[in-house]
Amino acid sequence: MGTRNLKGLIVAVLGLLVILVPLLIFPPCSHMLELEGGGETPMKCFWSGRAEIGIGFLILCAGLLLIFGKSAETQRFVSIFAILTSLVGIAIPAFLIGGCAMKTMTCRTTTFPALYILHALSIVVCVLNIVNAGNRDAGTASGSL
Q1: Whole-prediction pTM value?
Q2: How many domains is the chain built from?
Q3: In a domain? residue 69
Q4: What is the spatial distance between Cα 100 and Cα 3, in angstroms, rounded to a whole number?
Q5: Residue 55 belongs to some domain of the structure
Q6: Are 36 and 103 in contact (CB under 8 A)?
Q7: CA distance 10 to 80
Q8: What are 18-32's pLDDT values in tens digits?
Q9: Which of 64, 84, 111, 138 is least crowded, fewest Cβ atoms below 10 Å from its Cβ?
């Protein structure tokens, strides 16, 4: 297995883990908020977890594209896409949707930190892949990026 395939596999596994963290591994808080009208709605951390499932799916797909993409240009563009997706994945619980206000809640102690670590690892692997794709291009004709 070449480094291209290995990096793609790592990104795909990280994407799968981003999906599994809010679903099974470290689910966010399960409390419901009572509305003024008497109804209930899930807390913000629930919605952050749901959004992360979609983000994880995009990262998983990017990892698969990295496995099957052959050209250095494809590797670069897919890696950039995965980096941007991971940055959105970090922003969702940090400030786009957020989570519980109490720092002792499950979402703030386990779910979000696990997601931050997975997204950071995805960014690191993709940056390495961009550098590696640039090194491959240096030996051939220059890319169009």
Answers
A1: 0.87
A2: 1
A3: yes
A4: 40
A5: yes
A6: no
A7: 15
A8: 999 999 999 998 777
A9: 138
Between 43 and 12, the more confident residue is 12
What is the total residue count of the chain? 145
Distance between CA atoms of residues 115 and 103, nearest Å? 16
Q: State the residue range of the domain holding 88.
A: 3-135
Give 34's strand partners. Answer: 40
Q: Which of 93, 103, 95 is nearest to 47 (CA)?
A: 93
Answer yes or no: are the C-beta atoms of 10 and 67 closer than 8 Å. no
Using alpha carbons, select from 70, 28, 73, 52 the residue that is nearest to residue 122.
52
Contact 42, 76 (CB under 8 A): no
Cα end-to-end span (Å), the chain:
26
- The answer to whether residue 129 sits within a structural domain is yes
Q: How many CA atoms lie within 13 A of 5 on its CB side?
A: 2
In a domain, 140, yes or no: no
